[in-house]
Amino acid sequence: MKITEVRVRPVRREGKLKAVVSITIDDVFVIHNLKIIDGKKGLFLAMPSRKMSNGKFQDMAHPIFTETREEIQATVLEKYNRMLEEGLPDDDGLEE
What we know:
Blueprint: E1 3-10, E2 17-25, E3 29-39, E4 42-46, E5 49-51, E6 57-59, H1 66-86
Antiparallel strand pairs: 1-2, 2-3, 3-4, 5-6
């Protein structure tokens, strides 16, 4: 598996959510609505999820193996950090 594209959309509001991300795998499969969250131990990547009737969140899509999750997270956070170093775009492209 190769992540062939990462699209990061920083959010402009204050809070733990820092960006919404889409990734493309092997130029043929896209996953939308991954989220970069600023947690207690630093930034991490949350998989797309939905709120269940019991109030808990369940991932809609997720890697089966820890190594795959770590690879995806490292790739996305590297892109996000590069974007921060280069400066966030003006209002264009920012999530509300």
